[in-house]
Write a structure and sequence with these properties.
324 residues; alpha/beta; Rossmann fold; 2 domains; seven-stranded mixed β-sheet; five-stranded mixed β-sheet; globular
């Protein structure tokens, strides 16, 4: 076992896959000699050279378009879009090209493309860099969307994404980049589409994504002192969603709360709540609760973000109210 940060787990995953398969490429802004805007490609340029670790123009549409073309012609590209907020600049390439190629060509082409991107919720950098937009891409058939919350999950899911034959949107949270965890030496593969029970419990099911998983676990510690045991489930994959694991938990606890950093209306939390209500209605003793930021642009300033976003204390209060 070796202790790794979330960021170094990502670097290790890319390095291992590039060494294993010479078709794997890394493309993006400053991913080469600079080591990535957030340091998540350090050392890769020196190891694999400019033919496989290549800086691109500052054009998100071009970056994803390069990836689509490379994937169609036998490569396995990883492309980096610095912030998910910039997806609006390349959404045509993502939603209408990468996602639909296998379907439109009747399976003649696969699309082994990974699009790595970052969200920066609660980092105080304003409305153009602080959005969690997983619902945008989760709504597009043909895309797989993963959102790891721990270093081990980041490594295992990224390796699986690189080996996948379909396009995968890989969402990292910048606030997690320094998170540390022990990861076993050797191969680490985590299947896409399988949720993880981060903490078992009996009283309330809490489904949390990304940064919110840590807050749910912090809330669980507070509630455990009161004799309340919540079950914390991390879907890890936004699409395809492992609803079976969630429903099995709800059948045991009879109550559910969904906690996300994406906005409440039309968000991922709404989809989870709807599926629980549709498929697990008779297991519920109370309506499903959604904890998420309100329908407003993200303001500048971390204090304002903390006021709007779910916190451990807000989760604790929601659990108490649900049980009452």
């Amino acid at each position: 076992m070796t202790t790794k940060t979330y960021c170094w787990a990502i670097i290790d995953a890319i390095r291992e896959e590039m060494a294993r398969d010479d078709r794997v490429l890394l493309l993006g802004e400053d991913v080469g000699a600079a080591g990535g805007a957030f340091g998540a490609s350090r050392g890769l340029f020196d190891t694999f050279g400019p033919a496989r670790v290549r800086d691109t123009p500052i054009s998100e549409e071009i970056i994803v378009g390069l990836g689509v073309g490379a994937a169609m012609t036998g490569r396995r590209p990883i492309v980096e879009i610095m912030f998910m907020d910039f997806f609006g600049l390349c959404l045509d390439q993502i939603a209408n090209q990468a996602a639909k190629t296998r379907y439109l060509y009747g399976g003649m082409f696969s699309m082994p493309l990974v699009i790595r991107t970052s969200v920066a919720v609660e980092m105080g950098i304003g409305p153009h860099h602080s959005q969690s937009l997983e619902s945008w891409v989760g709504h597009v058939p043909g895309l797989k969307v993963v959102m790891p919350s721990t270093p081990r999950d980041a490594k295992g899911l990224l390796k699986s994404a690189i080996r996948d034959e379909d396009p995968v949107i890989f969402i990292e949270h910048l606030a997690l980049h320094r998170m540390k965890e022990e990861i076993e030496d050797g191969e680490v593969l985590i299947p896409i589409g399988k949720a993880d029970i981060k903490r078992p419990g009996r009283d309330v099911t809490v489904v949390a994504t990304g940064l919110m998983v840590g807050k749910a676990l912090a809330a669980a510690e507070i509630l455990a002192a009161e004799g309340i045991e919540i079950e914390v489930i991390d879907p890890r994959t936004i699409s395809p969603l492992d609803i079976d694991t969630i429903l099995a938990s709800v059948a045991k606890t009879n109550r559910a709360i969904v906690v996300t950093a994406s906005l409440k209306p039309f968000g991922f939390g709404s989809e989870v709540a709807a599926q629980i209500m549709q498929h697990g209605f008779f297991d519920l003793d109370a309506p499903v609760v959604r904890l998420a930021p309100p329908f407003t642009p993200t303001p500048f300033g971390k204090g304002f973000e903390d006021f709007l976003n779910p916190t451990a204390d807000k989760i604790v209060a929601a659990v108490r109210e649900l049980l009452a």
